[in-house]
Every structure is written in C-alpha cells, then in structure tokens.
Amino acid sequence: MAGIADLGVGIGWRSEIDLTVERLPGVDFVEVVAENLHIGHLPESVTLLLERGVPVLPHAVSLSLGGADPVDLGRVEHLGKVAEAVGAPMVSDHVCFVRAGGLDSGHLMPVPRTRDALDVLVANVELAQRNLPVPLALENVAALLEWPDGELSEGQFLAELVERTDCWLLVDVANLYANARNIGTDPERFLDEIPLERLAYVHVAGGVDHGDVYHDTHAHAVLPEVLGVLDELCSRVKPPGVLLERDDNYPSDTEIASELAAIRAVVDKHRG
Amino acid sequence: MVTPVTTQGTQLSAEQVGYLTAGPGRAAETALARLIDAGLVRVSRDGLVSAVHQNNHGATTAIEARILSYARTPVRFDTIVRSAAHSTEMSMLHQHLLDRKLLQRPRRRNEGWWFSLVIAVVLVLLGFVALEFLLGVPIAVLFFLWQRGRKAITGAGREALLRVTATDRVHAVAVYGFCGRVNRRPVADLFELSQSIVRMLPLKQNRKRRSSSDGGGSGSSCSSCGSGCGSSSCSSSSGSSCSSSSSSSCGGSSCGGGGGGGGD
User: Fold this and answer.
1) How far apart are the C-alpha atoms of A122 and B257, rounded to whole Å?
2) Is residue B51 over pLDDT 90?
3) CA B19 to CA B259: how far, in whole Å?
4) How many helices (DSSP H) and strands (DSSP E) are in chain B?
5) Between chains, do A252 and B45 touch, taking CB under 8 Å as contact?
6) CA–CA separation, B124 vs A24, rounded Å?
7) Can you give the pLDDT at residue B184?
8) Measured between CB atoms, which of A18, A249, A253 is closest to B44?
9) Phi/psi at A130 (5° precision)
10) Which has the closest alpha carbon to B43: B66, B67, B65, B18?
11) Quick one: DSSP state of residue B54?
12) Where residue B135 falls among pLDDT bands split at 50, 70, 90?
C-alpha cells in the first residue's frame, strides 16, 4: 500500500448516536467497532453513510495481538469480513493484550516493552496480516502502569514493530496525554521516535482527572491539552485523518460538532 | 414551550393537552417530544432514548425530569413512554387535572351506575304485578347508558381543548401522538423519527375528527398506555396553524385539524 488516502476529520460511529453522526456536518469518515457489527446485517445508519460515500473503517478491540495466547483467527476473520462488507481501505486494533490464561481483562492492557514481547507481538501481527484482506494499523494504548524491565521506549517499540511487520500506525493523542500524566512519558519523544510516514490516522478523545490520575474515559470533553498534543503532531506531519472517539455520556449534537470543529481547526492550522 | 390559551382563558401545558386528549400515554409522549425538541435527549435509529446530560438538566416539568432520569442509560422508546405514563409524576398531573375539574374523578364518574340497572330490574319484576311499572324501564335503561357513556373529561376540559392551537411539533404530538398525522404528514417526520421507532408504541384508534375541513388531523395514532379519559373519547377539534415558532417546527405546514380525541 503506497499511502493512506486523505480521510479528513471523522467520528467514531456508535449506535446510540447514529442519527447524530448522520446529521453532523463535516464528518468525512467514521470508524466502527468491528466486534459490534454483524456481517450481513449492517446497521441501517452505516449503510446510509456508505451510500453517501463516507469511508467506514473497522476498529477492533479484541484481537489481543500483544498476548502470549495464540491469536484467535475467528476474530481476525470477522474483522476482515467487516472490512469487506464496508469496503474499508484498512482495519485497526491496539498494541495490547486483552486476555491471558483464559481470562478476559476487559481492558486494553499494555504490553511489556521487551524484545521478547516484541517478538510475540510481531509474530501475532504477521499472522493477522496474512488473514486480513486489507492493511492493518495498530494503536498505542493508555496505560496506568508500566511493566518492569522495559528495554525500549514506547516510540522505539512501535518503530521496530512497523519496521518488522510493515503495519501502519494509529496514533491516539489522548493516550499519549494520558501516559504523560499517569506514567510520565514524553509525547514529543514518542513523536520523534515513531515513523510518521506510516501514520494511518489519529484518534482524539476526552477524559477526566480523578485525583492524581487522568482517566482516558472517552466519555468526557476533549481537553485543550490533548488538542495540544494533536497540534504538536500536526506540526510534524499532515495526518491522513483525525477521528474523535466518544464512547459514552454523549453530549449534545452541538457539543460534538464543536469538538469536531476544534479538531479541524488544529488540523487546518497546519495545512494553510 | 408554548402554553396554549383557550377561549375560557384556561391555560394548558402541552402535557396537559396530551393527557386530556388521550390520557397519560399521550402526556408521556408529549413530555418526551419536548425533550427531543430541546435536544435534551437523543433517539437512535433502533429506538433507544438517552439523555444528553446526566443531571436532569433542562427539565421543565416533573414528568420531563422523570424521563431524563430514566434515560441516563439508553432505554427503548416505548419503554420510556410507558414508564413515564405510569410514574408518580403522571399521577400528580392526573390529580392536577382533577383539581382543575378538567377531568372527572373516577369514583364520581362510576358511582351509581349500577343503581339505574337495579331499578330497571325491579321495575321489570314489578311489571308482572302491574304493567304500568314497565313504563319506567326504558327511562332506567337510558339513564344507565348515559351513566356508562359519561366521559372522563369534563365539559370544562372539552372546552379547554376545543381551541387548543398546535403551535409547534410538541403540540402536534400532544394532539395527534407520535403515530398520528398532521396534514397527511406523519408527526414522527417532524422529529425525523422513523416509523419503526414510533410503531413501538401500541396503536390506538383515535376518535373520529369532529370536522374534516380544518387541516387534517390523524385518523389514528399510537396513544400508548391507556388513558385517563377512561372509555371516553375526548373530543377536541383544534383548528390550528402550526406557526413553527422554533427551529423544530412543523415545516411550515398547517397542522390544524381535529384533535382527535384519544381513545382509552
């Protein structure tokens, strides 16, 4: 794949806000959670958006590519079928694991940044890629802990992952902000270290302070600081797309439109 | 929210219009319509209603607050209407309408209905003794039928509804229900709600309109959850022009028409 087409500014499609997404002006693309869709029975709203020519990108949350358990090819197959059903140019999941030893964490767990863990991740990603009809992009996660004995920074870890698998990167600037707040990582160093030419698109989301901890809730307003990280990213590269993720506690259509406008303003600032 | 003023100066809120027209289900629909109109709840394509704010923000009535409370997590369209119709707040609205003598108290409406029937039976029995007693039977029967046919809504209530003006889409719901039609246009369309959503509500046949020359109200609508009007049909012909005072208007159409009295 030579490059990612210009996607523009988008929003995560969720069934609770389907009509809102349809009515919002300036939604250039949407992302759907692949696990929530059933092949052969796409939501009417998604079908409508496709008919309008709005790109629909499947986003997975359950492949657990960073886990030591064998990859569940059934989940990979489902993701691929969703991609084909919506004609998506790519699919995505996270650099994380969500199950181990037969238990589901219910959360996107960070991967130990060791070379051994990287080898496992690379093998799993390559297996998934062989079973997917379209390219795969992988997203950095928000973490509340760092595993001990890490050998690579997060940026180095992802850079080596890209080099070895030729995957694309989905950079979540809200997760970068969360990690900076909670475990003291440096977003600018991250951006320095990753291959920005392999950037597929960007996630932006809201969160909330809870004492000394920042919760990446996807259920609160996007903080100016998160837009600041987006601004930093856009100063280095023109992202093919930027997408607002909102998963709960949906605000009014007006507020959602304002958040999209704020994102677009940051992107356009660097395009001028 | 516009409060229609009737000829007698009686002011009715949209919820009250809904209640008098077709009972608590319609009042619940009306409250929900107002919340949708104000952007305080959203409805998804599969009919899930969710509050936009988590603190009952924006509620102007107790029923609206109750609905917002229900909708903190997504709730089915019909479930939320039914729940609101059976809520304590709806009982309070019912009581308020009773206090204003716009509705009759059920006890008063029903009391004594059996008495005329007993009289009729006694007169028939006495007719075996003297035929003259039979002359009173038709009178007793007619009185019985009159008692059974008494409407829950009072004359004052009917009068108050008589010239209710559907000034906006919220009042269109109050008068016709989400499943009703205004000028042959589905009321649901005014809210960009699909028929699959509003058909979640149980269908009720509305009373025939008193007049067909006033713009076209609904022939039937889904007035859910029964009615405080009991078995009555709350007639109201509400000639109206939907002047669309808000952004959420009836699209310039005149939504006049007989406010089809709701069924029960």
Assistant:
1) 69
2) yes
3) 12
4) 12, 9
5) no
6) 73
7) 86
8) A18
9) -65, -25
10) B67
11) S
12) confident
The structural domains of chain A, ordered by start, are 8-271 (3.20.20.150)
CA–CA gap between residue B160 and residue B155 (Å, rounded): 8
- Contact at CB, A18 and B39, closer than 8 angstroms: no
**In whole angstroms, what is the distance from residue B239 CA to residue B259 CA?**
8
The answer to whether A20 faces chain B, any CB pair under 8 Å, is yes
How confident is the model at residue B254, as a pLDDT?
Answer: 30
Judge contact between B85 and B177, C-beta under 8 A. Answer: no
User: pLDDT value at position A110?
Assistant: 96
Nearest alpha-carbon partner for B174 in B66, B3, B5, B15: B15
pLDDT of residue A2: 56
Is the CB of residue A162 less than 8 Å from the CB of residue A149?
no
- Work out the minimum CA distance from B83 to partner chain A, whole angstroms: 20
Report the C-alpha gap between B229 and B202 in whole angstroms. 17
What is the mean pLDDT of the segment spanning A235-263?
Answer: 95
d(CA B9, nearest CA chain A) in Å: 37
SS3 call for A242: strand
Determine the Cα–Cα distance for residues B148 and B156; give it in Å rounded to an integer. 19
Mean pLDDT of A148-162: 97
Distance CA(B42)–CA(B216), nearest Å, equals 29
A107-141 per-position pLDDT tens digit = 999 999 999 999 999 999 999 999 999 999 999 99
**Which residues are CB-neighbours of B91 under 8 A, at least 6 positions away?**
none
How far apart are alpha carbons A110 and A171 in whole angstroms?
Answer: 15
pTM for the whole structure = 0.79
Q: Got the DSSP string for B180-247?
A: -EETTEEHHHHTT--HHHHTTSPPEEPPPPS-SSSS---SEE---S--TTTT----EEE-------SS
Q: For A28-71, how does the pLDDT look when each residue is reduced to its tens digit (9 = 90+)?
A: 999 999 999 999 899 999 999 999 999 999 999 999 999 999 99
Q: Give the bridge partners for A243, in sequence order.
A: A10, A203
- Is 50 exceeded by the pLDDT of residue B148? yes
- Shortest Cα–Cα distance, A248 to chain B (Å): 9
CB-CB contact of B70 with B90 (8 Å): no
Pair B217, B181: CB distance under 8 Å: yes
